Amino acid sequence: MQNEGPRIRREKRTVGAMIELYCSEEHGGAQGMCADCGELHDYAMQRLDHCPFGEAKTTCVNCAVHCYKPEMRARVRVVMRAAG
Asked: Could you tell me the sign of the dihedral formed by the alpha carbons of 20, 23, 78, 36, in that order?
């Protein structure tokens, strides 16, 4: 199951932009994202593709189902704090 609706696409753009911004500011990514940030980006996109709520989803922070592994959730939290 891959979610492709407008809400998921917008969420992907937002998360992707925040990870790119974080990477360029924290890791000086002149050649694009570093491997660690690329891994986080791919993981976030995969989670959004398989979100059980699809277009009816809330923001991840308000979701009752935390589908991120604890380590990845902590990494995204750092990115959001720095980029937001």
From this structure: positive
Distance in Å from the first CA to the final CA of the chain? 30
**Virtual CA dihedral for 54, 40, 13, 47, nearest 10 degrees?**
-10
The whole-number pLDDT of residue 10 equals 92
Spatial separation of the C-alpha atoms in residues 82 and 33, rounded to whole Å: 16
| Maximal CA-CA distance, the chain | 37
For 20-58, the pLDDT digits (tens) are 999 988 887 667 889 999 999 999 999 999 888 888 888
- Closest C-alpha among 2, 10, 38, 7 to residue 22: 38
